């Protein structure tokens, strides 16, 4: 069933009533194990030529698209994401996460549908989040589905393939303005503070490669890119913006994150 709540600014909130084990599947050991895979993949890819996203985008538009503008009236806002969309790391996830904070900027009468599921990977989101999003006729969609895949050791090629599928379906089945975030500099967060300089360098090269692929697909599909690696570096370098778990944003970090999204959404 659907749980209908109210958000600030007379914005109606629609959140999926999911089992707790589905909404909060994050387990720290999984991330640490995944980090080992990610670093191994980074090391293997350091000497190889970066894989082009062209082969994964052949079914997409022949030319780069222009981002669809945001309507001036009430908006149906759908958020696709993982634990950050849920608000893990904040004191009150229903109001302090970046998704409800974005919704607070929307005109009166707008609707927010937060489909975020903690611990989810992009490939799972294609069947667990995307189908419902496509039924809502959204005017605005935010996407942040990358950190779980990266840390868990999903290959670059598989991730780009799935991201192309996600953006292609959003492009063909909606008329929404889409804002998508990339990977911040994870080497700066406390969760990875004890890694060696060599491991951090390998991880950083992998992050840059993934972000290049994300940026290329964003251009292809007219998606607004929220560049957290460049403009959001303070999210990972300032301790007050990181929660007690050393990975997720704190309440003030979510406020910063929502601001980066909103500035990109406004265009």
Describe the biggest sheet?
7 strands, mixed
Strand content: 5-15%
- Strand adjacency order, main sheet: 1-2-4-3-5-6-7
Structural class: alpha/beta
Question: How much helix is in the residues?
Answer: 40-55%
Task: Specify Rg, calculated over alpha carbons.
Answer: 17 Å
Poorly predicted segments: 1-10, 15-33, 35-58
Q: What integer is the average pLDDT?
A: 82
- What's the count of strands? 7
Write the CATH fold name.
Rossmann fold
Number of helices: 12
CATH superfamily: SGNH hydrolase
Q: What order do the SSEs take from the amino end to the carboxyl end, as H and E? A: EEHHEHHHEHHEHHEHEHH
Head-to-tail CA distance between termini:
35 Å
CATH architecture: 3-Layer(aba) Sandwich
Structure in words:
The chain is of the alpha/beta class. The protein contains twelve helices and seven strands. The chain has helices at 20-23, 28-45, 83-86, 93-96, 98-103, 122-128, 130-134, 147-152, 156-173, 197-220, 233-237, 251-266; strands spanning 2-7, 11-16, 76-81, 111-114, 140-144, 177-181, 224-226. It has a seven-stranded mixed β-sheet with strand order 1-2-4-3-5-6-7, with helices on both faces. A hairpin with a 3-residue loop joins strand 1 (2-7) and strand 2. Helix 2 packs across helix 10 and helix 9 packs parallel to helix 10 (197-220). The longest helix has 24 residues, at 197-220. 48% of the residues are buried.
Question: Could you outline the blueprint of secondary structure elements for this entry?
Answer:
Layout: E1 2-7, E2 11-16, H1 20-23, H2 28-45, E3 76-81, H3 83-86, H4 93-96, H5 98-103, E4 111-114, H6 122-128, H7 130-134, E5 140-144, H8 147-152, H9 156-173, E6 177-181, H10 197-220, E7 224-226, H11 233-237, H12 251-266
Parallel strand pairs: 2-4, 3-4, 3-5, 5-6, 6-7
Antiparallel strand pairs: 1-2
């Amino acid at each position: 069933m659907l749980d209908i709540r109210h958000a600030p600014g007379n914005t109606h909130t629609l959140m999926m009533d999911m089992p707790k084990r589905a909404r909060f599947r994050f387990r720290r050991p999984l991330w640490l194990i995944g980090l080992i895979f990610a670093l191994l993949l980074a090391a293997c890819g350091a000497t190889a030529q970066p894989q082009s996203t062209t082969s994964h985008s052949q079914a997409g538009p022949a030319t780069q698209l222009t981002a669809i503008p945001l309507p001036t009236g009430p908006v149906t806002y759908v958020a696709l994401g993982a634990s950050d969309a849920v608000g893990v790391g904040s004191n009150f996830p229903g109001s302090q996460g970046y998704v409800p904070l974005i919704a607070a900027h929307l005109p009166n009468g707008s609707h927010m549908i937060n489909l975020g599921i903690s611990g989810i990977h992009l490939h799972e989101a294609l069947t667990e989040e995307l189908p419902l999003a496509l039924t809502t006729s959204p005017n605005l969609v935010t996407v942040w589905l990358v950190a779980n895949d990266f840390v868990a050791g999903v290959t670059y090629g598989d991730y780009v393939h799935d991201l192309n599928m996600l953006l292609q379906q959003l492009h063909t089945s909606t008329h929404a303005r889409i804002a998508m975030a990339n990977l911040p500099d994870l080497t700066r967060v406390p969760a990875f503070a004890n890694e060696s300089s060599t491991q951090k360098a390998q991880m950083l090269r992998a992050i840059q490669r993934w972000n290049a692929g994300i940026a290329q697909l964003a251009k292809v599909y007219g998606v607004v890119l929220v560049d957290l690696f460049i403009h959001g570096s303070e999210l990972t370098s300032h301790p007050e913006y990181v929660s007690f778990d050393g990975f997720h944003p704190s309440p003030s970090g979510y406020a910063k994150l929502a601001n980066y999204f909103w500035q990109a959404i406004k265009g």
